[in-house]
Structure formats: structure tokens, C-alpha cells
Amino acid sequence: MNLLVLGINHESAPLELREAIAFSTDQIRPALLELRSTGLCSEAVILSTCNRTEVITVGQPDTLSVLESWLAAHHRIEHALLKPHFYHFIEADAARHMMRVACGLDSMVLGEPQILGQVKTAFEQAKTHDAVSTRLHRLFQSTFEVAKQVRTETEIGQHLISMPAAAVRLAQNLFTQLSDCHCLLVGVGEMIQLSAKQLQNAGVSQLTITNRTETKAAALAQEAGARTLPLEQLATHLENFDVIISATGANRPLITPEMVEPALKSRRHAPIFMVDLAVPRDIHPEVGRLRDIYLYSLDDLQNIVSENLDQRKFAAADAESIINDAIDRFVRNEKTRAGQNLVVSYRRQLEAIKSEALEKALVRLEQGDDPEELLTLLANQITQKVAHKPSVELRRLISEGDTTDLITARQLLGLEAEEHQP
Q1: Of 41, 50, 103, 181, which one is the catalytic site residue?
Q2: Does residue 50 carry a catalytic annotation?
Q3: Cα separation of 171 and 300, whole Å?
Q4: Residue 229, helix vs strand vs coil
Q5: Which domain holds residue 134?
Q6: Which of 43, 127, 58, 48 is nearest to 91 (CA)?
Q7: For the whole prediction, is pTM greater than 0.70?
Q8: Helix axis angle, 163-174 to 190-201, nearest 10°
């Protein structure tokens, strides 16, 4: 049985398709039960995030096409619509893929740490619902060990490569206690949503959101635990904020020197950290010339992000090397374990043949049969049963003319020595 991965992610499919086949937390349990009850999978883990949905399981390679159909039917989507976007991995490639995913090497944001927690959660969910057996357990334990090693021995997660993350890190350099600062977010788009999360992660609790459409500002504020401010009141409330991050689609600057100068006077020139993530710019460039204003544009942040991305790429190369070594160990251990199981199975088979023949011989011995004849009969029966299957396979190999397999068979049966006897 092979390790198998069937998936769809941010590189293989657009957002609308990823959304369509995503599993919520509540949907994982019934999906796992369905996979097992229908006999599709003896064990399975479902990993579903905003950027990927994957089924990790054990089976024959043709199971993958069946899983494709199941996944499409489960979400009531035409299989033909999804098929071009699926990817498959088998055995060692499946193990390598899972290790790369857990290390953040397959993420939209290279090296992002959240994915490891998501993989662990998916594994724990599957264990809770009795969907994990020995093979997947070994795979995921090896995966977690490698991810820990990569985080410890490389700098894959130590260089910020998103604009909002870089912005918040700069703010932390300016303010000793960013968590005590009053922060304003202007807009409600993706950049602002990411900024809100970064500020929350930094411990900021005094967060305000303003936007031209107040209902959208209110929705994001509720999600982020923030207050709202009507956009038309922005000028009169600037003095209240230590950090301002703006990213709207406005055609002209929303924050001008004329608005900022009186705010600075009211603050007695306490510094204001500003980040303009908009194109066209939301904050007039002249604002950056004012004393005690620390203004960063997209270009400023891009330089930081580009440098950090280069650093992460170097770290990613080190991570790939660690994964290569781990895969070699994993494959070697799996082969050894499979070989040990084969030896155990073979010895059990021989033991069963011996026990059956011996039991029959003992019965006949009790009935008074001649012991010498019984020993001869016992030896012949065991020889015939042990030799039957190998003899059949040897005749097949001879008829097919497969020289390589015949040489292997000689080695297995210990016949090389006979060839060299006079």
C-alpha cells in the first residue's frame, strides 16, 4: 500500500475553486467517516486551509482517481471542472510533499509558520475520529520532526516578507511598547485586513478602522475587535493616533500636510508612524517632510521585503537539504519495516505448514502407525508444501525467459553454491 496525496492549492487553482472544495472544521468528521465507511480509505487526513485542500491517505495509485470523483461529488462540483487543477503524489513524493508543506516551502508566503499548526490540527482531528493508523502516524511524526529541525536550524521564518508584517515590525522599532499605541487603519481591503492581524499579534488592543463605506468598516471592526471612525472625521481625530496604516482606492491623498500639522501641535510633536500601502498614494508625500512624522511608502517597504525574501530563499535551500536527508531516512525505514513484515509473514507460513503436518502425524501415531513411516511421510509433506509455490513461480519465470528474476530466485533459494559444485 502506498502513501497518497490528492490536492488542490493556490498554485493549481483559482480562489473560487479552492473555496468550493474547502472543508470547514465541522465538515471534517463526516467526510472522514464517509471515506472510511465507503471503503475508499482505511486511514486518511484532510488538510483544508484558505490556500489548499488535500487528502492524505494510504492505498493503491488508482485510488487517486476515485478520490478525485469523491471530492467533486462531496462538494457537488463537476469532476471535469476540478480535474485539471488536481495534483497527485505517491509514496516518497507524497512524504516529501507533506514535509515541504509543513515547513512552509509550498506556501503562498514562503516559510510562513501558520501552516505547521494547521497540519498538526488536521492530524489531530483525524486521530480523534479514528482515521489514522500506523502508516500515516509514521508519516506525520516524521513530518513534524523535520519541520521542527527546519525551524531550529534555518532562518526560514525569521525574515518578514509581507508588507503589513514589515510595517508593523518598523512600528515596533519606533515604539518601545507598540501594544500601548493607538492605531488607525484606513480602508478595509486585504492589506488592511492583514495589517489588523499583524497589529493584534503584536498585542495592540486600541485599534480604530475608518472607511468611506461605514458598513464595511463596521464589519471588519467587529472581526478585529476594533472601533470605527467616520472618514469625514479623520482630520479632527488624527491627533489621537500613534500609528496610521492606509490602503484605499482613493484617487487623491486622504491625509495631507494641512491635516497633519495641527495634529502634531496638539500632540506636542509626539511622533506619528505612518505607512502608505495605497496606489495612488493615500498620504501626501510632503507629510513625510514634517518633523516627528515617520512615513513609509510601498517602495520603502518593498526594499525591506525583497531583501528578506532573498534571505528566506537562502534558508529554503537549507530546508530542502534537510528534507532530502529526512526522505532518505524515511524511505529506508519504510523499506526495512516492509522487509521485516515479509520475513515474519514467511516464517508464519512455514510454521503453519509444519504445525498442520505435525498435527496429522501425531494423530496417526496415536492410532498405531509405524513411526519411521510417519517421519518419512511428514518430511515429504512439508517438503512438497514448502516447495509447491516456489516451483510454480520458477516454471513461470523459465517460460517467460526472465533472466534477471531467475538470478534473483537462485539467490533467494540459496542455489548459487550448487551451480559451482562439480
Answers
A1: 50
A2: yes
A3: 14
A4: strand
A5: 2-153+311-334
A6: 58
A7: no
A8: 40
